[in-house]
Predict the structure.
Amino acid sequence: MVDFKLRNGGKVIGVGTDLIDIHRIKEACENHEDRFIGRIFTEEEIYYCSSKRNPYPYYAVRFAAKEAVSKAFTTGISKYLDWKSIQVIKGDREEPWIRLDQKGKTLLSELGGKEVLISLSHTSSLAQAFAVIIA
């Protein structure tokens, strides 16, 4: 685990990043829509993404977020953390936040973490996420 002290006395205990081709997510959605979308994304994420004129960048950046968070936990998507254990939600200023299910909260607690921070970005072809676990 990474262990960096922050100015406010906290520390970083995990970092993760992911970069994905939006076209790859578009193909997965079009070719295996119910199976792919239903397996990876929560109902709230599906509702949000499908409300967009072009949902694929929004699905892709959420996919990248799930990968980045799982890397920050050092587990990847595995028996410790499911795809739906990690959910991207919007904060008061429309900023992205991570909501963890019970499995994710348990893992966060076991690692001594208090919060998962996320930064998301996408262009017309790529989606990227960067996650940090703070103790």
Observations:
- The chain has a mean pLDDT of 93.
- The first strand starts at residue 4 and ends at 5.
